[in-house]
Amino acid sequence: MGKQFVFGSVLSRILLVVAVIFLSASCSDIGESAGASRVEVFVSSQTARSAFPVLDGIDVSYEVTATNGTRTEISTEPTENGAYQLGIESGEWSIDIIGKRQDSGEAILHGSDTISVPATGYYSKTIPVVFFQSGTGSGSVSLTVDASAVSAYSMGKLVIDGIGEQQELVPSGGVYSLLLDSVSSGDYPVTMKFFSVSGEFLFIIPERISVRQNMMTEKWFKNGGEPYISTTSFVLSDSVIKEIISTQFFVKGNGGSLSASASDSGSGNWKEPFESLDAAVKRAEILGAENYTVFIDGTVSGGGTISYGNAKICAYPGTSACGISGGITVTASGGDVSFSGISITGGSSGGISVPETSGAEKISLSSVSVKDNEGFGINISNGAELCMSGAVTVSGNWYSDGSKRIEKNVVLPAGGTIKIAGELSSSSEKIGITLDESDGPSAESSYVFTDGFSANAGTSAKPWSVFKSDNGKFTVVWNDDSSEGAFTKNGGGINAQSDKIEILLTDASGNELSSSEINEGDTVSAKAEIDGDEVESGVTWSMKILFHGSEVKSVSENSISFDSLKYDSSTAFDFADGNVFQLLVIATYNEKDFSVTKEFTVTQP
Fold this sequence. Notes:
This protein is mainly beta. InterPro entries: Pectin_lyase_fold/virulence.
């Protein structure tokens, strides 16, 4: 059994089983002795279908570290049954696992958990390990789709987006095959779109693919971590297809690309599309599909009510203009509703309405246009979160005040904000916001109306380039305290930009840094600017070099050299070609922190 421990009354033997890699796993079977306690824990870290590299032929060494306050215990040698033994006192311990390739020493896997150790006896815990989210170098992706259902579903073309350039595959001998070499290490959200032999879109499969240096990604897993394909092939079985089809519905309107006629009495698939949004929602409810997608093909008339589940309403691939003519009311008892790639116009009682009685928790817009609706554009009355990303337009919506049309686009309730969920695209048609004057900014303070703008909207986006106040009641500015978009009363409040700093990175010669390549010994400096003018005093700096999220060097100045990197105070770092580092720069000015992060890849001369 390897190393033995002598236990007193406060010691326990801890057997930690490292579960490589992504599968559901249980604790190892340990025999009990008199008075011993045993805890069994079942762990599954896999929540979505994913593809991972295969570790066959690659030796990995694990270091298991247990920490309790100032006490640390480390185990690096497994027993015959694969357990890592630690003799530690009772109490709560943090367990961290690092897996390193034996050939290069690169840390590629990690896992962590917190355990409560009993006073005496045995304690067993299985802790899964997963790949670090970023990696170095490049690997390969091998995908084979056994198209056993090709004839049944008239499959023709498979389009894969998300791994470099778009891949278009046609079956050869009833099989789709893909081999990509020199794919940069990383995690990729991938969409697999299947089309019929006549070119019609059939269904979509979202996946995640992990690629790591000198490894072949060819093993796939589904929810719960069970492989739903063999080691080297992605078997798209009829049962998997039926499961996917049961949660994807099609609604065809004017200008749609689907060849079949639309009817609400059909099944709602691509062969029998519905003609109304309501029919798709009702079918999802009948089937019990709590998470479902509705593809809008062309312009669908009549609006609709989303009364059930977590719904994704998106554009049908291949049709240039997809939308809904008429307003949409969300009355679902719970869940999230998202709109993507469509327009919503011509509603007589608003564009998107979420009444107070609705249980919907989040409304998301991604590359959506809400225009020319009477009453308002978007009105969320139940407190649900409103999220935006991409090219969102909400303008030209109105209500009538006698003979005048008054703009009323996004109606924000008192204290309401807009969650910025991704990069926003500026437009000449800015997103209009209506805020009751009594709930708006005062002469002394601004009203913050965004959440996550600085972090997610994009480096070039400014609140005033994306948003406007309906009818010019307020001015859109930058709130420095929160790094968010805000309203001020016209002629008062805070100054747009005021002391918001921009951090610029430079090389040793003072030139702005454009390259992401780094060599050992290179120096990166930083400077602060406000509206193009350098700030020469009053700024304090912190610069950190990170590797896989772990700090390997830190200085309290505005210049740092890529040398003398260490995992800790004593362990030297191997500055290997292809390694990827993150540089985190924090500038503090007027008691506010501003930061920038940049990735660098080692390129040895």
